[in-house]
Amino acid sequence: MVRGWYVALFGACLCLSAAGSPACAAPPSLPSTQPDCSRPFTLGLHDHGLLYSQDTGQGIDRDIADALAARSGCRIVVSLLPRARIWQLVETGALDFSLSGISNPEREVFASFAWYFANKYYLLLRKDAGPRDVDGFLRDRRLHLGVIRSFRYGAAANDFVDRLQENQRVSYAGALSPLYEMLMNNQIQGMIIEPFDYPALQERSIREATRIVEFDDPAIPHGLIMSRKSLPPAEQDKWRALIRTMKDDGTMLSILEKYFPGDIARQLLAF
User: Which of 51, 97, 118, 137 ranks highest by number of CB atoms within 10 Å?
Assistant: First the structure.
């Protein structure tokens, strides 16, 4: 009776064959919760304000990429790419990951996401353009908007961009810096920004020449972008769990607090 209780409790393999070797099978091993690191992974960053700066090699996305590599134990090869190219490569499976991505129905077909912060979008207007709100900008056909190619936003901001695009009132750039130059040269009269773009607004000339208008959209979740073509669903879940752990244990907050005051960092994570 005691021996039976011991075997049942500890799963010990005590049955022997006639030859004296174990005859019962070992208990199955539990699936690993860590990502499969049997190959190197690729991750694309794009040059965008506090998310990543090509000039300094630093930014929120760079810190998150480093934390993902350290937590997973996997080799992650990081490269700098235009945002539009990142989405193309994720779709084909030639790029495993990117960061700070937002979803829409088209992207959900080829990409999976692990959310870690959320933020709103804003319209940055030249003061001398005249309008003081989004509707006024739409009505004045002389005005043009600048956006980064392949960027999408919240529902109201997306509708704003699409309506202007229908009237050929949108100019595109591959990164944030050219848009600021176009704005200050009056080639465009407005551009869409998010909190990660605010440091540029500290430049006196930009601050004095512009005003900020909020879109009627809730905060939009951003997160790790995972290629459905290169990562099986079970592996996507493991990376998603890793991101969740980084949120729960304060790692994400620590990263954001390097770039924002504590109250803003906490607000970005409160979704």
Answer: 97
